[in-house]
User: What shape does this take?
Amino acid sequence: MADEIDHGSEEFADARQEMDQLVYDSLKSKEMKPNAMFARLSDLAKSAKMSRTAVTWARKNSLWPLQFGLACCAIELMDFGSSRIDAERKGYLLFRGTPRQCDVMVVAGWVTKSMVPEIKRLYEQMTEPRYVIAFGECATCGGPWWQSYNIVKGIDEVLHVDVYVAGCPPKPENLFAALMKLQKKVGGSIED
Ligand code: SF4
Assistant: This one.
């Protein structure tokens, strides 16, 4: 691990820097700080000499989505949490309230230009590697509002998208399928 990290004036503004420092401090003092449990798996793996296969397996089976919605597609996101879908059987229901504990952003709803800086900030605060699912027509291409002056024509103009989900509104079942596809992608069994 590199020498002590210089955080500059904006201390711990960036999740990656914060995690780097926590892991560095823990390894140096040989004491694991409670927050270090959220450190990047790759760093812990390096220190524990875990194999790449074990890291990939753990990563693809522990997707942590961010609790976050933008418009009516967020209602479908809520339905995704219902017993009808039973997303918990795959461990997909651990929606977290802070981006620092998440690695999957489900963009549910239209993206206004004024929301772009906030979405980027949330994305940058998520732990790496991080993934994006464009959930529904609005997040994919602007949907019914694609000609509006204040709507971004797809979140892929702002962030790299890993999986797209079609529909207006998109079905919660399709979000389940999208997460399964993302798992395959993280596991390396399908390409970008
Ligand atoms: S895709 Fe349809 S349901 Fe989803 S946010 Fe856009 S208008 Fe609403």
